[in-house]
């Protein structure tokens, strides 16, 4: 088989896996007990294709969690956490994360085995978040005495709650602005 044919087969395999994962997310968010066969049908692939790509349902779920976590990590990196001004980075990251979390709600809520790729990526994302919060603290956007792990947890809660509210169709930039404003200024009266 030539190099071009091999590359074409790899691209087809990647498209199949992507279609399966996207279909799994759509189906499992509505019906968490959906079978491999139902997911294959939703993806428009043969039952044998899904079984060839994933040894069992658990392997598919783990791949789904890892894929979503990779996209979330990329969303964070796309916000330039190390180089953009902290407030800009916080806004960009938040808007990016909202988009990924709304598209991959099922996969990102799965409990991850502590040694799984998804869990490792989630820990890395938490570390990146602390990095941005430290930069914001250095810029006097966050009180110097604030417990940054607590601030991170509140930030995560604000994102989670905004997605569970009336976020369907909401502008990610507007939601991000609201989340960052609430995180940095709370609900108290403005001066």
From TrEMBL:
What is the scientific name of the source organism? Streptosporangium pseudovulgare
- List UniProt keywords, sorted A-Z: DNA-binding, Transcription, Transcription regulation
Q: Does the keyword Nucleus apply?
A: no
Listed name of the protein = HTH tetR-type domain-containing protein
Q: Where are the transmembrane segments?
A: none
Q: Gene3D superfamilies from the xrefs?
A: Tetracycline Repressor, domain 2 (1.10.357.10)
Q: Where's DNA bound on this chain?
A: 35-54
Q: Which residue range or ranges hold the HTH tetR-type domain?
A: 14-72
Q: What InterPro entries does UniProt report for this protein, alphabetically?
A: Homeodomain-like_sf, HTH-type_TetR-like_transc_reg, HTH_TetR
Specify the domain of life of the species encoding this protein: Bacteria
Q: Does the keyword RNA-binding apply?
A: no
Q: State a single Pfam family of this protein.
A: TetR_N
